[in-house]
Amino acid sequence: MTNWKEENNALHQEYKFQDFTQAFAFMAEVAFAAEAANHHPNWSNVYNTVTIKLTTHDAGNTVTEKDRKLANKISAIFARYA
Question: Would you identify the family this protein belongs to, as annotated (predicted)?
Answer without folding.
Answer: Belongs to the pterin-4-alpha-carbinolamine dehydratase family.
